[in-house]
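Q: Predict the assembly, please.
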Amino acid sequence: MTDKRKEVTKREAQSSMETERTRNRKVFVPKVDIIETDSAIELVADMPGVNEKNIDIDLEKGILTIKGVIEPEHYKDHRLVYAEYEIGDYQRSFSISDTIDQDKIEASARDGVLRLMLPKVEPAKARKITVNAA
Amino acid sequence: MIMVNNINIISILTEKTNKWKGDRNMWLSDLRRSESFFDTWREMDYLQREMNRLFSGEHLPFGEGYPAINVWADENEAIVTSELPGVDPKDTEISVEGEMLLVKGTRSLDALKEGERYHRQERDHGNFGRRVRLPFRVDTKSIEARYERGVLSIKLHRLEADKPKKIEIKTE
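A: Predicted assembly structure:
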């Protein structure tokens, strides 16, 4: 546990100039933990309110993008009388420097937490080249 | 539309907190513009939290007010929601004392195994606790709590004795 005060409010994603979302809903940056081992990179992201089916993971040209679309819970007969947090989708991108074995990426989600396992491509075995004397 | 309005009110409150000392009278008068029963309650709750913050002197591991909460209500019930992804419901305790709802628990991270190292560690962890003033007194026997997709929602029913009584006017 840390004594340091953490930012508790959700951080809103910066909208990019090139692309605009069709859905007019706020987008937040999910908080993540990224853990590296010798063989893989593990990413854990908090996406409360997102159904597993609505998570989109994309790895292209070294950019990993995670997206989560929420199904907002609206209590039709109730009024929101007090609010400390806003509800919205999640999106975040990372550049991954290691070569990832795309076919072996594993993803699971539970209780609003996405876990991604990105195995690194095994490095090519060093090949000894002998120079033949002429 | 209603939702947007309320969020605006909260952001006004937050803004005012920062200016607490100088503009105390000003924000009080701002709040007086609000009209409904819930606004009065919200004002009370806000003042109470402000007092807690000023006098507790505690250093909360999560910073103030973790987890963030939203309250939905109608005349007869209140629904308190909170985003608590990856929390084991067994490690979460919910209790009601009078008009106060208490939510506390622990959020733990997986310990790093040998050979693992963090690139980033942003997710909150540790003990958390919130005390929330409810808009009315509730029936402690009929509290329903659900935990779905990392969102905790607690449904509380208004105590029968607390409901407003309609008084018929007799005419001769």
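Confidence is low (pLDDT under 50) at residues 1-35, 55-63 of chain B. The beta strands of chain B are 69-73, 77-83, 92-97, 100-107, 117-121, 126-133, 144-148, 151-157.
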